[in-house]
Amino acid sequence: MKTKNTFRIIAISLLLIWLAQLGSCANTTIVPGVPDSDSDSDGDSDSDGDTDSDTDSDSDTDTDSDTDSDSDTSVDECEEELDDCDDNATCTDLPDGFECECNSGYDGDGLICDDIDECLTTPCATNAECTNTDGDYDCACLTGYDGDPYSTICDDIDECSLGTDLCDVNATCTNTDGDYYCTCNSGYSGDGFTCVVSSLLEDFETGTWPWSPWVTVDTGGTVSSSYAHDGSRGIFNPGWHYRTDVTFGTTTGQTLSVWARPDSGTSGRFYFGFSASSSGCRSIILAPNTTQFFFQTNTSWGYTAQTSVSQSYTGGTWYYIELEYMGGGQYQGRLYSSTMTLLNTVTHNFGTASPGGIAIRAFNGVSIDSISM
Ligand SMILES: [Ca+2]
Ligand SMILES: [Ca+2]
Ligand SMILES: [Ca+2]
Ligand SMILES: [Ca+2]
Question: What is the pLDDT of residue 55?
Answer without folding.
Answer: 46
